[in-house]
Amino acid sequence: MDYRAFAKLLLQRDDFLILSHLRPDGDTLGSGAALCSALRRVGKTAYIVRNPEIVARTLPYVEPFFAPEDFAPGCVVAVDIATPELFPLGFAGAADFCIDHHPSNSGYAGVTLLRETLSACGEAVLALIEAMTGSVTAREATLLYIAVTTDTGCFQYMNTNADTLRCAARLIDLGAEHRRVILDYFRKVSRARIQLEGAIYSGMRFYRDGRITVAVVTRAMLADADATENDCEDLAGLPGRVAGSMVSVLIRELESGESKVSVRSTPEVDSCAICAVYGGGGHAMAAGCTLPCGPEEAETRIMAAIERVWPE
């Protein structure tokens, strides 16, 4: 489906609730808030879900778009969500529309706009807003700049391409507060985050002569560093920084006793195929899954999946 056709269907509806995914990142939140703003500009009632897992640095950007507690949506739009299992905490229902860039999208929504080749969902939302309204405000550009920069690690990840950079340049031309975004998301971190990173690096494990790097984050490590969720964004990129690493794994112990596994890889290895062994998904070079076990068992299981997908 092209952007104009999707926009036409969207504009036939009203009373929008826009969903972000579990453990929301800048792409799902920035894209959703920008879409919400654009829908309001064309006279629609629109809100984003009050996701309880939003971290402090993103809250000022998206809080003005939160839905009131008594809001009854007439149309639900999922943004950057590959499967219903990733719907936010507290939401129960179905999605009428979905805007996504994950190849593993399960096609759960009534109508889906899927752009698998894009680095960030924000790129698709930019094109959709322009198709829908013919313009983009500076505030929307800032929200979409958050989306694009966070999903590419400030253009460091291998999903970055020329179209990504052209999109970022266009957003700056449209008024995005790029300096503020870079400071908020990439230049300034808390002392707790620095201490946590030190613990992660010192405990890393190496396999296949360093081509596989594994890091574990336990609840005890978070407590020792006095770290909160505000200090845990984008931890998945850390173990892959080691020279020679082709597959990197970050395993995070959750309060439920489960383990959230994030896999990153170079183009030679399919991260999505590794995580799909346990029902996960994502992109070819960045994917994830959740395992019903503690970190040590999770490491054993994900190493088995790597062996299956990428045998020696």
Topology:
Blueprint lengths: L2 H9 L4 E4 L6 H16 L4 E3 L10 H4 L12 E5 L17 E4 L10 E4 L6 H13 L4 H14 L10 H12 L4 H10 L3 H12 L2 E3 L4 E6 L1 H6 L22 E7 L5 E7 L5 H6 L4 E2 L3 E6 L3 H15 L3
Parallel strand pairs: 1-2, 1-3, 3-4, 4-5, 7-8
Antiparallel strand pairs: 6-7, 8-9, 9-11, 10-11
Number of strands: 11
Task: Give Rg in angstroms.
Answer: 19 Å
- What structural class results from the helix and strand content? alpha/beta
Shape: globular
Average pLDDT level: 96
What is the CATH superfamily of the largest domain? inorganic pyrophosphatase (n-terminal core)
List the strand order in the largest sheet. 6-7-8-9-11-10
* Helix content, binned percent: 25-40%
Please write the CATH class name of the largest domain. Alpha Beta
H-E order: HEHEHEEEHHHHHEEHEEHEEH
What is the CATH topology descriptor of the largest domain?
A: inorganic pyrophosphatase (n-terminal core)
Please summarize the sheet with the most strands. Answer: 6 strands, mixed
Number of domains: 2
In angstroms, what separates the terminal alpha carbons? 41 Å
Per DSSP, what share of the residues sits in E-state strands of 2 or more residues?
Answer: 15-25%
Q: How does CATH name the architecture of the largest domain?
A: Alpha-Beta Complex
Uncertain runs are: none
Count of DSSP helices? 11
